[in-house]
Amino acid sequence: MGGQQYKVSVIGSGNWGSAIARLVGQNVEKHPDLFDQTVRVWVFEEEVNGRKLTDIINNDHENVKYLPGIRLPDNIKALSDVQEAARDANILVFVMPHQFVYKTCENLRGVIHNDCRAISLIKGLDFHNNEIMLFSDEISRILGIECCALSGANLASEVAEEKYGESTIGTKNIETDGKIFHKLFHTNYLNITVIGDYSGLQVCGALKNVVAIAAGISDGLKYGNNTKSAFIRRGLLEMRKFGKTFFGGVHTETFFESCGVADLITTCAGGRNRKVAEAFIGSNKTIEEVEKELLNGQKSQGTTTALEIHRFLKARNMTDMFPLMTSVYQVIYENAPPESIIDALQH
Ligand SMILES: NC(=O)C1=CN([C@@H]2O[C@H](COP(=O)(O)OP(=O)(O)OC[C@H]3O[C@@H](n4cnc5c(N)ncnc54)[C@H](O)[C@@H]3O)[C@@H](O)[C@H]2O)C=CC1
Ligand SMILES: O=C(CO)COP(=O)(O)O
Q: Which residues does substrate bind (predicted)?
């Protein structure tokens, strides 16, 4: 692709999708030699206050539903047709709740250039036919293109407000994709490190959401900071064990990057998973009802991930090896008393 400008499309426009589209919109302007100056964004169309969300984004430069109060750059072009949003792109940034990835990728089959490359910002793992897969690998398989991943301690609203933070890119191709994606995402307020362990990075992004539910349960029970730290520590150990047990090439060092312990801390302090789990305690509602009431269409991925992990471990008789993951599942889905989650710490 020597000398050619990369056309970037962001596939997804929720809370993180909008914050990252904003950052990418800014960064392509800093590298006009490298990137086309328009960033197309696929929006799952919906009506907000009687207007199409795409029209609101294109005319008012704000995603009023998923990232209210933040101005998006003028070079962001929202499109409701995913094929139109991705056609001719050289770079695809996948950023959507993990339950929507397959359908979206299927719609893109045959539309994507084979010199295109992708990056997954999705925090979740793919459990399919009782096997476990990385979304970067699935995107790669379905679309026939290379796909790496970005994950980090990145609460979307804070990144959108340009509060300083860090993030991690995991890729097999550090010299090629690592360099181009570093250019696309690194800013003075988001410091990017590139590593080779893309599997460990994605395991962290998915499992920290389940640990954040444990932190939320702990907060809902008013257990205090020491208890929450115990959940975070045990959670980190289970994240590492899960990665090393089920994926090759997972390194302990990855858990010390932004995608590891830092993301765990930020999500357990200020994330949606924690917030929903805290409100769930004592509510007499299902977790889905609480999520709907609190998040206005945003999704907390940890509940689905807890269920998927549990089914996967149960099929292998391995639930005992992951007491915290198991206990979160039991509290959320099997009406286990929330206080029983402490047993997971004494295992
Ligand atoms: N929000 C955050 O602070 C961060 C989120 N992430 C991860 O980024 C990914 C995307 O999350 P967000 O952008 O925050 O999304 P979100 O949870 O804010 O929004 C939900 C999105 O799903 C879309 N949607 C609803 N129904 C759909 C359907 N049937 N098909 C396709 N799309 C549909 C909505 O239009 C909306 O864009 C997730 O894996 C999340 O864990 C990662 C870092 C930070
Ligand atoms: O991934 C996140 C921060 O890095 C956001 O976490 P929540 O989905 O729990 O808000």
A: 123, 272-273
